[in-house]
UniProtKB/TrEMBL annotation:
Gene: LOC114249418
InterPro entries in UniProt: FAD/NAD-bd_sf, OSGIN1/2
Organism: Bombyx mandarina (Wild silk moth)
Domain of life: Eukaryota
Protein name: Oxidative stress-induced growth inhibitor 1-like
Coiled coil regions, renumbered to chain: none
Amino acid sequence: MKDSMRSCEHVLTDDVEYKEVVVIGNGPSGMVTSFMLDGNVPYLKQIPEDLPIDEMLRARLSNLPEGQSLYDADLAELAEGLEGRSQNPIPILMDALLRPCADLGVQADSLIEWRYESDKQIEHVVLGQGPPGGAWHTFPPDVRTLSPAAWLTLPPHTDGGAERLSARAVANYCRRYVHACKLQRYFRNGVVVTSVTLMPETGPPCEHRCCPRKAKFLVTGYEKASLRAVRYACSRAVVCAGGAARGVSLPRAAPHATHHAAALRRALRHPGLSPLPVLVVGSGVSAADGVLLCAAAARPVLHVHRAPAPALARLAPQLYPDYCQVYRLMCGERPGHASLPGYTSLPDHVILDVTPLSADRTGDADDEDLIRPKRVRLLDPRTDTTKEVTVSIIGAFIGSKPDLFFLQTNLNRDRIDIKAKCTCGRVADEAKRKIDDKQFFLKNHWHHLKSVVGQSLQNCRSRYFHHTELNGKRGAPAECGGEGRCCAAEALSDGIGFGIDRSKPVDCRANPLAIDKSTHELLAAPRGLYALGPVAADNFVRFVPGGALAAVAHMHRAERTNAVL
């Protein structure tokens, strides 16, 4: 928070910068969190009598003292009993106030008024690997959103219509949002976060609100462009990243397949692509996007799928004619001129093996391996028969999982040496040299390297950094086994230990991060570590502001409590 007192004389090391809050992730979750941390405070407007909101909610809101901000309200009590499309009550509450009766089709003004109050400003930094907008910049530009434009705007914006937007439009909006809300100074883009660990105690803090000795967490990483170390000490950290960082791969097809729609779109435009059909695997919305991309490129499609996913089956034909077209074909409708003439449904088929066919290389191996013809053997379990098909591209869209490598399970603060120098650059150079030495062996599995082993290699480099941070042993080799797999006992990338079921990997839908519903603090971590957005089960942008409200309101309450004490 802004402080009129004299500046604090306590300092950490030269390469460690103190912030009250570090936000990890610069997508919509991180953006709206930054907007609230910047001192923008939500107040309730007068509720129109003819607005058909929940009567219990109306009664509770009427009891709020006049002039009280939502930061000072009992949000858990206000949200009690509300129903919506989120697992978390406060995001449902905030959505009901920002978009009253949206699910009923009612066009109503927001019930929230935003006021800037400088004394509510909390000094923070937002770290992200790419430009503001996060994963929206990785989607094919022409893919349209499931949500209408009105559900994709972030506070304080309330405009937007009922039309679906392209991913390009949403990505551009995110870029403009940061400038329109004057948040540029908080954003540090092009940064990979590698760890969040407890800070060692350096002595009693002074009375200054921004005293570095109040730091509880050490957030470390590196700049992607320069590989220069990035280290922030902070009192609180907010996890807003990693929602769809890694595509789930098929073991038999992984070395020969792409798991990202953007890569499929790029491959479909490759001048050397053969006229062979494209094999798309998956039953959900992402797989339907893959089918539609192939149709737009006039490519025949072989679609291996199970029963259509519930999310695809629930879409209304009037609003989502493209997805419903794919859904009908998956259910057995014969393709015609009005639908997708090159579509072939292969329900319940299983990929047994994939054999790349020889092809002359004329360009970049990255693209040429992806579009090289492949012979795929399929099993139809319904008839217990096999068939072989020859395809140009394999696109596997069977889900994604978050990459939570930076959440460390070793929280022993006495073993961290913040004075140890970071060796990210040297380790990165060594990792690159090893990759160059193995080019010949890996050239036929380049896409698998990028989607699976490449991620593991980055984790190996990061683990080397963690080893130095935790033990102070400089020059010790990273513990990595063969084939690019780290031999750590814990699967840190999967977030095991932090989900609702701590024995299973974190999944944004089936097993999200376990949080305190009233504050969005992680339950399996020290106090002061928050999570919101997809990793906390809020997979739609419309519910993101509620998670930010819960976290920021709790920060203000904690600050007031500390001031009294």
